[in-house]
User: Fold these one by one.
Assistant:
Number 1:
Amino acid sequence: MKTIIFGGSFDPPHIEHIELCKEAIRTYKPDRLVIVPTCYPPYKSKGYLSFEHRVELSKIAFGSLCKEVIVDTIEKDMQGENYTANYLPILKEKYGDIMYIIGGDSLERFRTWYKPEEIVKICPLIVVPRNHYQDVNTLIEKYKKEIGGEYFVLDYFGDHCSSTIIRAKLLLNLDPGEDITEDVLNYIKKNNLFDDYDSVLEQLHSYQTEDLFNHSLHVALMAVTLNTRGDLRLDFTKVFLSGLLHDNAKQRKSLDGLDIPEDAVGSPVLHQFLGAEKAKRDFGIEDEDILNGIRYHTSAKANMNIFEKLIYTADSVSEDRTYEPIPKIREIALKDFNLGFLTVLKHTYYSIIERGLPMYKLTQEAYDYYKEQMEDIPLI
Ligand SMILES: [Fe+2]
Ligand SMILES: [Fe+2]
């Protein structure tokens, strides 16, 4: 009896998870599909679904794909020792003739997994290329020489869906579109899942007009999207909150005795400094990354860290900005994050000059700092 094993966080399971399973089932004709939801470390809680809900959602999403479908809770049962190399032998014992699905991204990092040389001894791997451009065959040849193993490449290209981005949409009460099935969405709604930030959204909304609130939601979503697409690996919650709260002070500019640089008062950059201080005071944010993302989102500055660059870029290319040349710059940023950041900076700097607006000193410093890197980048 042949079994395909598919592991993942499934937070939530999306249409590509389902499609690639269907393709694997068509190709390898197993009798059984075993879904193995990942068990998160305890620090992951806000904004993430519980193991129990992910098990239920997996049953709903994958339940009808194969003659027999089992959602196996082995990761939770193993309590902290849940490495693939540890649980795969147990699954082999349980299910016999198994194949294990691995994504192209994971294959790239496979050597950093716990005991990959043990994993390839246990069963063949079904590799799912990330997209048309990913050359998994070279990687496979390399691994065959280094650690051995049997690999099959599935004729399916992923790339489009991301649970992280879907999660951000659901947390922001935005439409997840067709990336998840209706049944999955119904379960989410019925159980009031992804409502972790509803009170933050409500509070923010009370400070903002509809347009600005809509912009805030889209900056949060874009920050999460750029973080995912650019593989920046910044903390989801921090990115989400910094994007969401970046303009929290835009329509409430009273200084309230807060500590603001004197030269910012009366300038368009005031709301970034005020925003950081009011995020601290009114939303209880203490994390310096989140606060600095807010603090420099309009002016930029010299020598920005990746988090600051992310919020700055997300604010400029969020989907609610439909006017030229933003869609073009957005496309660049989604393909190449750093190029996107530099393109935004160059565009912003020259449009301040073109419009005869005063240049804030941090923006000038940012331009001077990144000037060399921007030299070959066309002004859009
Ligand atoms: Fe702003
Ligand atoms: Fe903004």
Note: The longest helix spans residues 210-229.
Number 2:
Amino acid sequence: MERMIATEKEEHKSLRENVRDFVKKKVEPICIKMDEEDMFPIGLFKEMGKMGYLGVTIPEEYGGSGMDYLSQGIIEEEIGYSSASLALSYGAHSNLCLDSLFRNGSSMQREEYVPKLSSGQWIGSLGLTEPSSGSDALAMKTNATKNGDSFTINGSKTLITNAPYSDFFLTYAKTGDNYTAFAILSTDEGFSRGKKFNKMGMRGSPTGEIYFQNLKIKEDRIVGKPGGAKDIILSGLNIERIILSFIFVGIARRALEESLKYSIERKQFGQHLYEFEMIQDKLATMYTKYETARIMAYESLSRVQEDKMDALHAASAILYAAEISEQVSREAIQIHGGYGYVKDSGIERLLRDAILGQIGAGTTEIRKHIISGALVKQFKDNPRILE
Ligand SMILES: Cc1cc2nc3c(=O)[nH]c(=O)nc-3n(C[C@H](O)[C@H](O)[C@H](O)COP(=O)(O)OP(=O)(O)OC[C@H]3O[C@@H](n4cnc5c(N)ncnc54)[C@H](O)[C@@H]3O)c2cc1C
């Protein structure tokens, strides 16, 4: 198997410093409040548009920064280090919705919608999950029927990131035997929002339901080809998994850094915590898992950059990053003792946020199904695939 790893150029290093500075000044001071009050910082989110983060992968002529997916991964990691929930909302807007709209949208959609989403004038969501279809996404019930040059959409989507605030939804509906992607605006007649969910983690990233009741739109709202949504869904899921894996790399980095700091500061029995062999074991294991997850995320991202993205690498990058961010956050609580269990420490939040990693963007079980399926297929074709 050919291996590749993205290397950061000067522009990436300077972007990382720029985002780090933004996070330190604007996100870090409110990250605990966001969690405690389940508060979405809408003004700050829109400011991320002005900073060029929301439209980072979009060409400048459409209001973006004209950078690459590595840049988007860097933004995810740096925001995720401070607030995984803000990083989740960022990922849903910038990658799942905006980047996919740009890749698949018509010139009208690129001109009308993309600049508004890049600047933060509009907030965006991707609507795939429905009350009766989650992992089995293609069993969706939302349907669109064609009448002349219009479509009438009926159905609903649930667990949608940013939905309580979004102006724009990239969503999917059954059109006969196949599926079509549509651009829906919150101002469309027949659109309504349901409740905002009260979640265990990722608090501050608003998650909600949306409904389409006899929602009529013209066919210029079709994103991509009529009946062509299956490819958009599947390729979107691969990129989404890779980009979102950086949130969990960010969580693991924060958990490890806080644990190193605390084990250097804190003394018990006249010794620093890091002098106890059992704490050394934890730190070493946490580091090794974090570093491996980071390498896997970079490796899979390189494949996107080189146009060689595949489901095997995308699913395994997020599978591992999500699993280890939970393990590393759990150990961080243990290293911090009772203080780690207290909300003000910000440590227990890392674990609650990390758990989403095994559910969103396809669950751990679905990722394992994809990975084993791809491995068996590739191994049958070439038994030396693992070398
Ligand atoms: C905070 C949050 C944000 C989200 N944001 C979005 C968003 O922006 N847009 C969007 O469209 N969706 C979003 N989702 C939905 C998310 O993608 C789904 O929750 C996820 O795909 C799982 O679907 P489900 O919840 O219906 O679980 P189900 O599919 O019902 O699965 C239940 C359990 O059964 C397992 N299972 C299902 N099928 C199999 C199988 N074949 N083999 C083995 N095990 C199986 C699952 O792994 C899981 O453990 C979000 C969810 C959350 C919690």
Note: The two ends are 6 Å apart (CA to CA).
